[in-house]
Amino acid sequence: MPSTSLEYKLKAIYFVEKMDIYLVFGILVFFCLLEILNGHLKRSKRSSSDWIQEAGIFLVLASLIKPLIFLIVMTIGHILFADLQGIIKHWSLGISLLFFLLIDDLLQYWYHRSAHEYPFLWKLHRPHHQAEEMGFFVSYRNAGLYYLMMPNIWWMALVTFIGGGFAVAIGLIFKQVVIISSHSTVKWDKPLYKITWLRPFISIIERIFITPAFHHGHHGKSQIDGISEPNGNYGNMLSIWDQLFGSAYFTRQFPDTLGLLNDPKEHWTATLFYPFIKSKDSSSELSPGFKKQPTLLDEPITVNLEKDTNYLWCQCGKSKNQPFCDGSHHGSKFKPLFFTVNKKGTRKVCNCKRSKTKPFCDNTHLSI
Ligand code: FES
Mind listing the pLDDT tens digit for each residue in 54-71? Predict the structure, then answer.
């Protein structure tokens, strides 16, 4: 028998919300202590704006967004789908845990990937990549609307409604430990890459779970360092989705430079509350009416290239530093092409972006 509507709603919201806040808070405190012991907080160059952004969204998420989503799902569930209430509560914990976590992580993979490939979502996710240091709190650094639209929170509420609240609460422990540890400066996997007899273990672990090296690579400023892959490694708890959908880039090094190229560093009110508050800086993607302009030319650009130097060729056609990438491709499906040359010299680099011998010109522009 389904319990009364109000009783069920309150129980579900109170149970999962309370567990969620305690668990996440507990894991955050744990990693905070590790980071303090590790000396990270002392070395941190974070500005007060960074701290406000990170703490602010954590509070807004826990106290407003999650309870609101739970309330909406429970209310709609009771009005339209009362028969579904509690239908999986007889499932074993193992089955409901797998059911919750696998769908949850797959949803988050595609949401996160879409946030890198579509301009509006990118603007909501961009604050996450503006962080120039990793750390436990970076995990929560997104605009508020990003969380309101996040399918995972709706999924958590839905699974709770159909009777999987306990699996949701337990699943959150696994999920948050992996997510927060992969953002933390406590690089637990680093020693494992160096000790020969431990390498087989870390090789298996990294093929299943997100490691700090895998995720720090996603936060690197640019592929030019040969370590980072900001246009890949979208997974949150499991790396299997990246391997399955072709976005995995395994690295065992950690990038030195994190953040965004050409970051105008907007005020935290704009990054936290976009699109309700916009940036006054006209060079910012968050300013009203901002549009990235094409910078293509129907002729190549002649450049001097150095031997054994890393270059990134712009493929999106919007870089202001043609023919090289300046990060303007973020928020689209384009990514730059990494290349080196084995002989120093002057080369004609394609700028119509249609060459078949990219990045070098093959005269395709003459037939356009
Ligand atoms: S600016 Fe990076 S690919 Fe165009």
Answer: 989 988 998 899 999 999
Neighbours of 354 (CB within 10 A): 16
In this model, does residue 1 exceed pLDDT 50? no
Q: Of 34-38, 43-47, 193-197, 224-228, where does mean pLDDT reach its minimum?
A: 34-38
- Prediction pTM value: 0.90
The predicted pLDDT at position 45 comes to: 84
Least confident window among 170-184, 226-240, 266-280, 292-306: 170-184
Instruction: Give residue 254 CA to ligand 1 midpoint distance, Å.
Output: 23
What residue segments make up the domains of the chain, in order of their start? 5-186, 293-368
Q: Which atom of ligand 1 is nearest to the CA of 330?
A: 2
Cβ < 6 Å from ligand 1: which residues?
Answer: 314-316, 318-319, 325-329, 334, 336
Residue 271 Cα to ligand 1 middle (Å):
22
- Residue 260 corresponds to which tokens in the numbers above? 């965004």
Centroid of ligand 1 to alpha carbon of 335 (angstroms): 6
Q: Mean pLDDT, the chain, as a whole number? A: 91
**Which residue CA neighbors atom 2 of ligand 1 most closely?**
325
Mean pLDDT of the region 35-63: 83
Atom of ligand 1 nearest to the CA of 315: 3
Alpha-carbon distance of 151 to 104, in angstroms, equals 8
CA of 342 to the centre of ligand 1 (A): 23
CA–centroid distance, 329 to ligand 1, in Å, is 4
The residues with which 138 forms a beta bridge, in sequence order, are none
Range with the largest mean pLDDT of 28-32, 155-159, 199-203: 155-159
